Amino acid sequence: MENRFAVILAAGQGTRMKSKLYKVLHPVCGKPMVQHVADEMSKLNLEKMVTIIGHGAEMVKAQLGEKSEYALQSEQLGTAHAVMQASSQLQDLDGTTIVVCGDTPLITSETMENLLSHHSETNSKATILTVKAEDPAGYGRIVRSSSGLVEKIVEHKDASAEERKIDEINTGTYCFDNKMLFETLSKVSNDNVQGEYYLPDVIEILKNEGQVVSAYQTDSFEESLGVNDRVALSQAEKYMKKRINTFHMRNGVTLIDPDQTYISADAEIGRDTMIYPGTIIKGNAKIGEDCEIGPNTEIKDSVIGDQTVIRQSVVHDSEIGKLVAVGPFAHIRPQSSVSDEVKIGNFVEIKKTSMGKGSKASHLSYIGDAEIGSDVNLGCGSITVNYDGKNKALTKVEDGAFIGCNSNLIAPVTVGKGAYVAAGSTITEDVPGQALSVARARQVNKEDYVGRLSMNQNSNS
Fold it and tell me: What positions does the entry give for Mg(2+) binding (predicted)?
């Protein structure tokens, strides 16, 4: 196989987005647009990938990291000028270069692979990715000869009435013979209204020089969608959501209402898991088999074990084991680890806490900065008092301990193995294993108090 190279055009600011965030960094299903493009390109067996950066250069580099090399376009003078910035990295290399815009998040590796194959099979010096559009207005039209070869690209404003009837459009993605691309870029002129150097002019120059220029037509219009404003961003989100949800359903996941289910591009979900409406799964979430998730649940960057049920709850940056029940209305905050067969019930919040196998916090509790052993029962209203205004401290509850309702554990403190804490206690010292700790005032009953109180109030009126 010949050498393959790629150029991603990601230097534009995207003024029509009307945003402080640079265009290609806007997320689609939780992943920045340029990351979608780079991830798909990475499947093409490339020798080198070069991303052209400009506005937000450091942020784009931080996003893509070592996945790509970079070339800076300090002035945005058009797409041909942008590709020219990669000349030091690419111009002397033999092979084929694919050029893709960083604001086309829906393009797939399959389509790019087909484009590259067509380019090679037709011995073309340039190949254009095209698609048929129901409404081609505003797009460049592909004018073909009777033999099917590309004669020219005509912009909508320059097209004749007959040419405007053509429904095959230019998507803005191209393949080139690499050396010929960079030789031809130097011939591109900026003699146009915008005073910019346009990449499609390379096609015209090659054609005029007698080189073979071809087009590969994809049947997926959505892959050609370039995101230039918030309206197009919402369209890309809709298309991507449908693609992701369809993938999971075809791989054995049940989505009760796909239109009301949002799953990130990087999420993994096991077979026979059921996702209820209103569920949002973000980031690198990994959900096991035979789970029930939702309704109205948010999971982000977390691992969920098999046969776990999470209802109307939030789980962020945590790990949950098998056969766990979470919710309704629970909040699992970052850096928490929940072992198998645990119950985290309604209105329970845990943060930076590990819970051992079989433990329970069934109602109305806050457990933060804690190590909870196995088979521990945290009664309704149990609180780890972990913050003194300056520092966080650790609470330990060892295996088999029982914490009564409305108990405060003032960290740092340890409740030993098998110990009992009486309901309503405020524990400030360690509790030995197998001990009963009672830390509350003795009950005092004042007989006839209410009657005397009423007499005093009447005498003062």
Answer: 103, 228
Active site residue 363: yes
CA 14/CA 196 separation, integer angstroms: 17
How big is the CA angle at 57 (ends 56 and 63), to the nearest 5 degrees?
90
Is there a binding annotation on residue 197?
A: no
Residue 206 identity (one-letter amino acid): L
Question: Is 241 within any annotated ligand binding site?
Answer: no
**For residues 40 and 193, what is the distance between their CA atoms, to the nearest angstrom?**
35
- pLDDT band at 461; cut points 50, 70, 90: low
Q: Is 422 annotated as a binding residue?
A: no
pLDDT in tens, 133-171: 988 888 889 988 887 778 888 888 888 888 899 999 999
User: What angle, rounded to 10 degrees, do the helices at 57-64 and 33-41 form?
Assistant: 50
9 annotated to bind ligand = yes
Q: Tell me, yes or no, whether 205 and 264 share the same domain.
A: no
Are 325 and 200 part of one and the same domain? no
- Contact call for residues 320 and 303 (beta carbons, < 8 A): yes
Here the tokens at position 8 are 């991603």
Q: Of 26, 55, 248, 363, which is the active-site residue?
A: 363
165 lies in the same domain as 257? no
In order of 107, 126, 259, 317, the CA distances from 129 in angstroms are 11, 10, 30, 40
Instruction: With respect to residue 377, please indicate whether it lies within any of the assigned structural domains.
Output: yes
Burial class (CB in 10 A: 0-12, 13-18, 19+), 448: exposed
Residues 205 and 259 in one domain: no
140 labeled part of a ligand binding site: yes
Strand 31-32 vs strand 27-28: parallel, antiparallel, or unpaired?
A: antiparallel
Domain carrying residue 28 = 4-224
- Position 25 scores a pLDDT of 97
Give CA–CA dist 18/21, Å, rounded: 9
237 within a domain of the structure (yes/no): no
**Total domains in the fold of the chain:** 2
Q: pLDDT at residue 75 above 70?
A: yes
167 is in an annotated binding site: no
Is 416 annotated in some ligand binding site?
no
Could you tell me if 141 and 266 are in contact, meaning their C-beta atoms sit under 8 angstroms apart? no
DSSP one-letter code for 404:
-
359: Cβ contacts below 8 Å, ≥ 6 apart: 339, 342, 343, 372, 373, 374, 375, 376, 377, 378
Same domain, 197 and 309: no
- Cβ atoms of 299 and 315 within 8 Å: the answer is yes
